[in-house]
Structures are given as structure tokens and as C-alpha cells.
Amino acid sequence: EVQLVESGGGLVQPGGSLRLSCAASGFTFRTYEMNWVRQAPGKGLDWVAYITRSGDNIYYAASVKGRFTISRDNTKNLLYLQMNSLRAEDTALYYCTRGSGNDEDNYFDPWGQGTLVTVSS
Amino acid sequence: QSVLTQPPSVSAAPGQKVTISCSGSSSNIGNNYVSWYQQFPGTAPKLLIYDNNKRPSGIPDRFSGSRSATSATLGITGLQTGDEADYYCGTWDNSLSTWVFGGGTKLTVL
Which residues in chain B touch residue A37, judged by CB atoms under 8 angstroms apart? Predict the structure, then answer.
């Protein structure tokens, strides 16, 4: 069974840092691109970052560029999101989600259960 | 303000058909595949439609997708109360070099 399990969320003060992890299982992790998508309480989906299979190509949402870093360890089947200079507006449930696995299209399937990040003093 | 525009809510009676629109531009929907996601309260989103009109395994054929020019549409026939959820469209935007989602549409089955 394909599974994505996020961890690392919690309460952090504005300006602080947090590193999220996503453990992948049930598929060949190194053959799929990966994404982070977040959802603020009561709001819609907000894409955060994308990383290619080898990690050689990365894209970020404008709102997190320069503050967040997506990375992966294909030997450990792990995806990461290093979040620095956190702001109150970064408060959200952060989902790890798998890409399509090919270069012709892109979509998100499946999704993890999410890990909650709360930025507050 | 989302790059892709969806109606905030739609409603229809059980057994009826409903469509949810997703309007974009040539930099996103006009030149890239659209996917649709279903999200029930308190749960993670689930892929419903990919590549404009393809259904993943396990998604009933009551759900359909289409794309025309810079707009996409999700159709749901034979509405059931269990279809009440939030629905999101999404695609890549070539100008922004980011993925973009619609603001989401809440479906109510009256």
C-alpha cells in the first residue's frame, strides 16, 4: 500500500524554524517527484514546493521562496521541508503528496494525513 | 485571490447532476493538464480526475472532467449525499512556474 506519513509539525514562535519530514512507503520513492501542499484552517489548498526525482530541479511558491527549502533522501525514502523565518500566515496543515511519476503530466496522488504547523507567540 | 477561479458553492438534489467550473488562462489551463481533488471535512484531499478527464482506479464514472480552451469542468451525475465535500481544481502555471489551485467549491446535496 502506498503511504505517506508526515511528521515534525508543532507550535513555533514567529521567526522560528521547523523541519517537516515525510516518510514514503509502498512505492519506488526515487522514481516520483514530490510536493508539499498546505491548508490554513478553514481555507483552501495552497501549493508550497516541488522537487524532481533526483532533486536537481526545485520550485517554490512565491510566498515561501527564500524561507523554505524542500529536499529529499532517496536512500531513506524521505522528503523534507525546512521552514525558516516562520510567520503567522504559515500556520497550516502541511501535506506531503506524490507527483505523477512521469514527465508528461503532473497531479497529486496520494496525500499524507498532514502535520500541523502553528506559528504563534 | 486564486489564479484559478471556482464558484464558492454549488448545490443540487440527490440524483441530479452538477457541474463545477474552473476558469484560468493560457498560461495554466490553456496549456497544461488539469486535475481535480475531493476533500471531506477533516480528511486529506483525494485525486478525483487527472489529465483533464481521466479517472484513477476506484473513482466511479459518475465523476467526469473536461477542458475547453482556458476552462475546465468537473461533472458529477447521480448525486449522493456522500458526495458533499469540497472540490479543487489544479494545474501548473507556466508564467508563474508554480502549481496553482482554484479556491475550492463546496458541494451541497440538498
Answer: 45
Closest among B5, B20, B18 to B73, alpha carbons compared: B20
Closest CA to B46 of A54, A63, A48, A4: A4
> In whole angstroms, what separates CA B109 from the centre of its chain?
16
In Å, how far is A61's CA from the nearest CA of chain B?
6
Cα A34 to its chain centre, rounded Å, is 8
Whether the bond between B41 and the residue before it is cis, its omega within 30 degrees of 0, is no
Alpha-carbon distance B94 to A92, whole Å? 26
φ and ψ at residue B62, rounded to 5 degrees = -65, -20
- Sequence length of chain B is 110
Of B101, B21, B4, B8, whose CA–CA distance to A95 is shortest?
B101
Q: Which three cell numbers stand for residue B27?
A: 498560461
Q: CB of A77 within 8 A of CB of A24?
A: yes
pLDDT in tens, B49-108: 999 999 999 999 999 999 999 999 999 999 999 999 999 999 999 999 999 999 999 999
The three three-digit cell numbers of residue A43, written as one number: 481555507
Separation of alpha carbons A17 and A1, rounded Å? 32
> E strands along A17-91, which residues?
18-25, 34-39, 45-51, 58-60, 68-73, 78-83
pLDDT digits (tens, 9 = 90+) for B76-87: 999 999 999 999
Residues of A with CB under 8 A from a CB of B: 35, 37, 44-47, 50, 59-62, 95, 100, 105-114
